[in-house]
Design a protein that fits this description.
16% of the residues lie in helices and 40% in strands. It has helices at residues 32-38, 88-96, and strands at 6-12, 15-20, 25-28, 44-47, 51-54, 58-64, 68-73, 82-83. A 5-stranded antiparallel β-sheet has the order 3-2-1-5-4, with helices on one face. β4 (44-47) and β5 form a beta hairpin. The N and C termini lie far apart (26 Å).
Length: 99
C-alpha cells in the first residue's frame, strides 16, 4: 500500500492495524515503534502511543483539558485520540511545520 493511501495505523487489543484513506483495514505484523522507524516523519506522527497518523487523516483538532489535544480522524474510528500533556507540544510543532 502506498504511503499516500495510508490514513493511520492503530493498536487495538494488542493487535496492530493499518487503515487506508478509502476505509479498508489490514492487520500489520510490525509494532508501532518499528513502523515509526519505517515511515516518513514529515508525513506521519506517533500519537498517544496508540496511533501513527498521516497528516492528511486529521479531520478536526480540539483543545482538551490540561493542555492536551484531541483529534478526529478520517476515516473515523471509535477509539480515543487524545495526546498527553507532555507530547501535545511536539504534536503542535509537527503540525506547525506542515503549514
Amino acid at each position: 500500500i502506498d504511503a499516500e493511501n495510508i490514513a493511520y495505523f492503530y493498536t487495538e487489543e494488542k493487535i496492530n492495524f493499518l487503515r487506508t484513506t478509502d476505509n479498508h483495514t489490514y492487520h500489520v505484523d510490525y509494532n508501532l515503534d518499528k513502523l515509526e522507524e519505517m515511515l516518513d516523519p514529515e508525513r506521519f506522527f506517533i500519537f498517544n502511543r496508540q496511533f501513527i497518523i498521516s497528516i492528511n487523516s486529521i479531520d478536526q483538532m480540539f483543545s482538551f483539558s490540561k493542555s492536551r489535544v484531541k483529534i478526529n480522524l478520517k476515516p473515523p474510528i471509535n477509539l480515543d485520540k487524545i495526546e498527553s500533556t507532555e507530547r501535545s507540544p511536539l504534536f503542535k510543532e509537527w503540525l506547525a511545520g506542515k503549514e
